[in-house]
Amino acid sequence: MKLLVKFNLIFIALFGGGLLAISHLAYQFLMNNARDQVVQQAALMMESAKSTRDYTSEELKPLLQKDPDSETTFLPQTVPAYSATVTFERLRKTYPQYEYKEASLNPTNLRDHAADWEADIIEDFRNHPEEREIMNERDTPTGRSIYLAHPIVAMPACLECHSTPDMAPKAMINTYGPDHGFGWKPNEVIAAQIVSVPMALPVQIADRAFRKLIIYLISIFIITILVIDTALYFIVIRPVSQLSAMADRISKGDLDLPELPVRGRDEISAVTASFNRMYVSLRKAFRMLNG
Predict the structure, then answer these.
(1) 3-state secondary structure string across the chain
(2) For the chain, which residues make up each domain, given as ranges?
(3) pLDDT tens, position by position, for the chain (291 residues)?
(4) Model-level pTM?
């Protein structure tokens, strides 16, 4: 096997193993980074919904309740959950795969009734009162999503409308009826804020970045091999081949060959210089024998 081929096999084994290791680590890093981005988006959206709720309850609701019509007409804009949900629905016109819901087992507005998987989250919060956040992944019709959930606890102000139907504003009863959204208890987890963010786009971006990285690594690997092969050929292979060819001709009795040129001060140059001295000595010895 040629020396250059042996070197190439060694380089391919070393670089190939390194490339596989780097590829694995890079893929894990990009996927983790994509997931972190989704989690950050979910946290940002959750805080945005919370800010909308706070703004509604602290600033908007007091103003709307001053309206004389509020005694006879129910204004859903005074409900923090309504404001947060409607605001998010407007966002979904541009980003339809993003979801926000204040899911409840016993909602006033049946639109907020919890699906099975949302009901499991609410039950989890009820069974673990110390738990303030749940984050997990789930499959959706549009692909994999990460959801972030926070519990909603019934505060004293909530019970003014949700304890019993006879305590609730008549305008609310006229709008939603007396059959649901009541019986809440103080400090009970009655719902959960749930934000769902799709992973498809960040994962696609990570996949494209990974493919580009692999292409760059393979390109660098090929260029490196070519450069190393070229250097090996001119620094090692060609001088050694010249030495071998000259030694072969000398062994066959050809003693009229010029000395090999010595370039540099490396080990190959030292071997070439030693070979030249040996060749000169051998040629002198043959001449003395023949003389």
Answers:
(1) CCHHHHHHHHHHHHHHHHHHHHHHHHHHHHHHHHHHHHHHHHHHHHHHHHHHHHHHHHHHHHHHCCCHHHHCCCCHHHCHHHHHHHHHHHHHCCCCCCEEEEEECCCCCHHHECCHHHHHHHHHHHHCCCCCCEEEEEEECCEEEEEEEEEEECCCCCHHHHCCHHHCCHHHHHHHCCCCCCCCCCCCEEEEEEEEEECHHHHHHHHHHHHHHHHHHHHHHHHHHHHHHHHHHHHHHHHHHHHHHHHHHHHCCCCCCCCCCCCCCCHHHHHHHHHHHHHHHHHHHHHHHHC
(2) 3-12+207-290, 35-199
(3) 577 788 888 888 888 888 889 989 999 999 999 889 889 989 999 998 889 888 888 887 777 666 555 556 677 777 888 888 888 888 888 888 889 999 999 988 888 899 999 999 999 999 998 999 999 999 888 788 999 999 999 888 777 788 888 887 787 888 888 888 888 888 899 999 999 999 888 888 899 999 999 999 889 888 988 998 888 888 778 887 877 787 777 777 767 777 777 777 777 778 878 877 887 787 777 777 775
(4) 0.68
Q: Tokens for 132, please give them.
A: 């303030």
